[in-house]
Amino acid sequence: MKRQEYKIIFEPTGRQVFVLPGTILLEAAAQAGLIIQTPCGGAGRCGKCRLKVISGACPPSANCRTALSEPDLAQGYRLACHAKIQGNLVVEVPATSLFESQQQILVQATGEPMELSPAISKRFVELELPSQADSRSDVERLRTVIPPLVFNPVGIRMLRLLPGIFRRQGFRGTAVIVDGELVDVEPGNTTSLCYGVAVDIGTTTLVGTLVNLKTGLDMGVEAKINPQTSYGDDVISRIRKCREEANGLAQLQRMIIGAVNDIVDALVRAAGIDRVHIYEIVMAGNTTMQQIVCGIDPSALGELPFVPVFTDAPDLESSDLGLDINPCGKVYVFPQIGGFVGGDTVAGIVASHLDRGTETVLFVDIGTNGEIVLAHKGQMMATSVAAGPAFEGARISCGMRATNGAIEKVVMDGDLRMNVIGNTRPAGLCGSGLVDTVAELLRTGLLDPTGRLRTPDEIPSDAPPALRKRLIEKDGHVDFMLAGKTETGSGKSLLLTQRDVRELQLASAAIRAGISILLEMAGLQPMDLSRILLAGGFGNFIRRNHARRIGLLPPIPCERIRFIGNASSMGAKRALLSVAEKQSASVIARSVRHVDLSLSPEFQTEFSAAMLFPEDDPGKDCEG
Amino acid sequence: MKRQEYKIIFEPTGRQVFVLPGTILLEAAAQAGLIIQTPCGGAGRCGKCRLKVISGACPPSANCRTALSEPDLAQGYRLACHAKIQGNLVVEVPATSLFESQQQILVQATGEPMELSPAISKRFVELELPSQADSRSDVERLRTVIPPLVFNPVGIRMLRLLPGIFRRQGFRGTAVIVDGELVDVEPGNTTSLCYGVAVDIGTTTLVGTLVNLKTGLDMGVEAKINPQTSYGDDVISRIRKCREEANGLAQLQRMIIGAVNDIVDALVRAAGIDRVHIYEIVMAGNTTMQQIVCGIDPSALGELPFVPVFTDAPDLESSDLGLDINPCGKVYVFPQIGGFVGGDTVAGIVASHLDRGTETVLFVDIGTNGEIVLAHKGQMMATSVAAGPAFEGARISCGMRATNGAIEKVVMDGDLRMNVIGNTRPAGLCGSGLVDTVAELLRTGLLDPTGRLRTPDEIPSDAPPALRKRLIEKDGHVDFMLAGKTETGSGKSLLLTQRDVRELQLASAAIRAGISILLEMAGLQPMDLSRILLAGGFGNFIRRNHARRIGLLPPIPCERIRFIGNASSMGAKRALLSVAEKQSASVIARSVRHVDLSLSPEFQTEFSAAMLFPEDDPGKDCEG
Fold first, then answer.
1. Is A6 an 8 Å CB contact of chain B?
2. Do B514 and B566 fall into the same domain?
3. Which residue of chain A has the CA closest to B300?
4. HSE value, Cβ hemisphere, 13 Å, CA-based, for A333
5. Looking at the predicted structure, is the pLDDT value of residue A74 above 50?
6. How far apart are CA A329 and CA A213, in angstroms?
7. Cβ contact (<8 Å) for A137 and B309?
8. Cβ of A294 and B160 within 8 Å?
9. Alpha carbons A466 and B544: distance in angstroms, whole number
10. Are residues B173 and B205 part of one domain?
11. In B, which residues are within 8 Å of A310 by CB distance?
């Protein structure tokens, strides 16, 4: 029973396989995950599959001698489709010999170079017509130009369509292959029309990005409030609806799928493409959002011990969810870690490469749920805290998303100066503007460390009079006027209320308490952190010094804090562009240790402590 | 990038894999396709996963020392879940350590011992309830007792059902795993209720066998006329209906699915089981039948160059076809070879092990299409001929299937003696009776070699008078009376007409011509054949000497002719009982050379020659 096997190493990737004597190089390469192109169907005629044997003996076959030149043969080139393996080899694979969809295209799309290898590939084919000399089956005929290694099963739907398609189109068209399955042969050459959508499914905000899967480039972004917010701001309210109402889950799922379809609609219209050429949607959200979007009951997340239904990424088609893209399109929902720590966290880790470094790094994703991941000594632990939607502009009296009209930056020197998105009149306050305002109020002494807005009488005597005038006493508490009626032009002034400050305190304290506990568990001090990665779906960035000023982040130098934007969206986009990133996501979801703060007696203590703003900016030496 | 790998050989199967240092034995075994049981979830407590290291060093871990006795350790036993690989090893896998569904159970079900490893496995589980200390997801919880190697993806349908099932059933029940996918968790322990149905989809006859997948034993057989025969006897008439009528395919598919459901109905009723416990149907038929049953247009099989749509076995669920078994049941349709040579031939090769031997063997499957396979020097070639349904009792004036009342054996000595199935009065003639009658008429000289029934005046003078009396002249031709009105009791006599003889001549000549051409192509004489395997769905067997007497088979000694029964049904049953047999089927379908006789100018010549019966029994020396 024992059989001799040879080791074949493929460069430049270094992938290696063991094969039986006599195996052809083409098969060995496929075993190593390298799909070599064979336009002539492996007949040994076209020479496109040539590989270079760097080390080891591999005598050229008759076909090699016919199809390759003497100098090429001398250099070690062989036809992968004919060269039989007779011993251990090291083989170099020229990029030009790889099947089109595997050619490494480096794109900057997601911030850093990556291999473009989406789950979807398209290939224009013109097949020989059947003849008495070649009466192979329709599927086999297609395999002459697309090897079985690229697509394997042909589903029953496609088997039923294929004979009609081939004979209508004269055995020509564009084969669409999704995750190794043939799903269509479109008329004509549509290879350039290949798109996907990455969606960050937030509790409060949905962000969709249209991506060209051939180039890796973004083609548009659309954001939208999660319509489920009409049933409550946080995941608990959504879970309760699923638990208590017979149709609650179906209703919430319909809402969110409708909103994703609206986003797709807007993206398709703005980009001027056909939705039928969108072949994949990747979605990342917390466990509750992901289960609802899939139509999976999240009830068990609503009570101790907070159990999700799945952790591995489920395998879905667009029709399973009613998503309005190509009817055979695929849906990828990120794997989950546990409790409330879901796919958005995994996507954030994918985007930030937290799993690859060796430094001690803290990742904080600020949303309605705050997700915190600590990477230390090659291990990761993650937790989730209920922050509420304040950072997304919700539950704040004049809060809004970071769109046109939002005050996104506030500076107080003499009087209040502000940046308004779109350079229009101010219409409200977005997350970064809120943090700025509170930080500046603390700095100028208008707000005390307990979070109480001081009365004009209580503030420091050196406070600028223009700011003093903005403090408005009413019913025993104080509000702060951001913009008067004349400035807004809407007939209404914009106020930061005492209640708004409390909302921010709660949100900030929850996240800070989570951070403190993870640091404690790892036995670390804030200064042990090489880096803090601050993620969030804000339109603009939170000022680092202000995040520290309000106590959201622990006192470490600003240069160690990096804002990385919507990491969940970025991770989703990476998964869309490369199956390798999906594999990373699976490994990440399995390896991150989930910390359930409902079990931690320290959380309430830390939370209470964090409710107090720091007396002074703990790191005001550096600029944000 | 180069990494050291170790070779691990698993006995007694001899399977080997290469793994990285530090890999645990459990994973290495899984890589070799051996699923080791781990009731404690791989915690190193239960000791059930123990394997014996026969050669190579594998120091016991702390867990090994705790869970295993000193003598066991000394003998080389290690815990697969904890023993880390540090070098090349040979490891013996005790059957008791294998996951239940992999334990080799040798059954005689299909004529010879085989490993029982159906695509379906069931496992009763009682999971720990979720707690604060263990808040893993529902799917992960199930994986503590069923490793990911046994089931991997959990489809969206199941993800939606699982949380409800688990909480209703208190995290207990029987997990049903089909082809590596979890499809149900049934209440209670239903592990013993696990059935499948193997169906031979003939152009004329359907035969279904109910099989117990736990024991490998047959539980019943039901046969039924293919209701499509109302649209014509042969595949060409069915193809024509699909080509010419908009709803032709749908109508024919509905008919055959209805008939298979009727067979399932009858099997379920006779065996007293619930159809929900039938988890797989395996079907084998010719290319036309298989495509129609799948709802795949066979039109291209109706014109040159006779192109089927698929060759690889399609992946189907019962709901894809409307088959009335478990709603998540699987359907396996055999891979096809080409032209009209379809899954029934592949199934026949699987059943007869034609692919494994080194002898020169001819396989002849007699049905409405006759399929002929020649195995010679490790190569196989196959062809299909249109024989018509005479051998199945159709298109013969008094023909019938081999059921109660059928004359299945005829001997002529002095007068005519017959065996009637069920020992009742004769009601008609089945295939073997037809061949007997014609062979005996030839022997006694009542039939001349051209196939003409002689008049009483023309027959040899020594012919028994009782036989002579049975020759009835009418309208210028002669019929032969098998049974008079008084014998049948139906008021009608049974006649073998001149036209019936012609039908048998056509059927027999087509098959014989096919045999002759394959032999010619291989440069063989009949006597070069070590064996002829005669397959067919007859209820009883054709007498070998008579098959040779009428020229159906070439002149070789009877002892080399073996009747193997319904090989297509047997092969279907083997595929039902073992996934390895399905893999064999794939290899067979790809490796058999398809011979298209429509291309062979010799076919008409051979066919004409074979229309003449041999002058004398070419091998009468031996008994049938």
1. no
2. yes
3. A163
4. 30
5. yes
6. 13
7. yes
8. yes
9. 114
10. no
11. 137-139, 154, 159
One domain for residues B426 and B560: no
Would residue A196 count as lying in a domain? no
A180 contact B CB<8A: no
Tokens 């005790």 belong to residue: B94
Residue among A129, A296, A297, A309 with most chain B CBs within 10 A, to mutate: A309
The residues, any chain, with a CB within 8 Å of residue B159's CB and separated by 6 or more, are: A294, A296, A309, A310, A314, B139
Both A14 and A87 in one domain: the answer is yes
CB contact under 8 A, A294 and B9: no
Query: Chain B neighbours among A 542-601 (CB < 8 Å)?
Result: 594, 596, 598-599
Query: Do residue A383 and residue A403 come from a single domain?
Result: no
The rounded mean pLDDT for chain A is 89
Q: Are B597 and B386 in contact (CB under 8 A)?
A: no
- The closest of B288, B397, B412 to B341, measured between CA atoms, is B288
Question: A19 — contact with chain B (CB < 8 Å)?
Answer: no
Instruction: Flag whether pLDDT at B100 surpasses 80.
Output: no
Residue B332 and residue B316 in contact, taking contact as beta carbons nearer than 8 Å: yes
- Asked if B163 and A18 come within 8 Å (Cβ–Cβ), the reply is no
Residue in chain B nearest A161 by alpha carbon: B296
CA distance B493 to chain A (A): 49
Last residue of a domain, one of B98, B132, B158: B98
Could you tell me which of B355, B353, B348 has the C-alpha nearest to residue B369? Answer: B348
Query: Rounded to an integer, what distance in angstroms lies between the CA atom of residue B140 and that of residue B152?
Result: 11
pLDDT tens for each residue of A418-433: 988 888 999 999 988 9
Q: Is residue A565 part of a domain?
A: yes
Domain enclosing residue B563, as ranges = 352-389+504-610
Domain count, chain B: 5
Q: How far apart are CA B293 and CA B97, in angstroms?
A: 41
Yes or no: say if A347 and A567 are a contact pair by the CB < 8 Å rule: yes
Give the residue among B16, B152, B39, B36 at the shortest CA–CA distance from B83. Answer: B36
Q: What is the pLDDT of residues B315-368, one digit of tens each?
A: 899 999 999 999 989 999 999 999 999 999 999 999 999 998 889 999 999 988
User: Does one domain contain both B570 and B508?
Assistant: yes
* Among candidates B131, B159, B307 on the partner chain, residue whose Cβ is nearest the Cβ of A130: B307
Q: Does A162 touch chain B (CB under 8 A)?
A: yes
A364 touches chain B (CB under 8 A): no
Residue recorded with tokens 């009742």: B424
- Nearest CA among B606, B581, B583 for reference residue B110: B581
Read off the CATH number of the domain in which A137 is found.
3.10.20.880
Q: Which is it for strands A361-366 and A369-376: parallel, antiparallel or unpaired?
A: antiparallel
For residues A476 and A539, state if they share a domain.
Answer: no
Please determine, for residue B422, whether its predicted confidence score (pLDDT) is greater than 90: no
Q: A299 vs B163: CB contact, 8 Å cut-off?
A: yes
Interface test with B, best of A8, A129, A160 (most B CBs within 10 A): A160
Tokens of B553: 């088979």
DSSP string, A508-521: HHHHHHHHHHHHHH
Average pLDDT on A48-65 reads: 88
The pair phi, psi for residue B58, each rounded to 5°, is -150, 85
Dihedral of alpha carbons A35, A36, A39, A45, sign: negative
Q: Within this chain, do residues A12 and A58 fall inside the same structural domain, yes or no?
A: yes
Distance CA B114, CA B108 (A): 7
DSSP-derived 3-state class of residue A167: helix
Domain-embedded: residue A319: no
Report CB contact under 8 Å: A136, B307.
yes
Q: Is B11 a domain residue?
A: yes
Q: Beta-carbon neighbour count of residue B587 at 10 Å? A: 12
| Confidence band, pLDDT 50/70/90 cuts, at residue A113 | low
Has residue A13 got a pLDDT over 80?
Answer: no
Task: Show the tokens assigned to A286.
Answer: 């917390």
Q: Which of B3, B154, B296 sits opposite A310 (nearest CB)?
A: B154
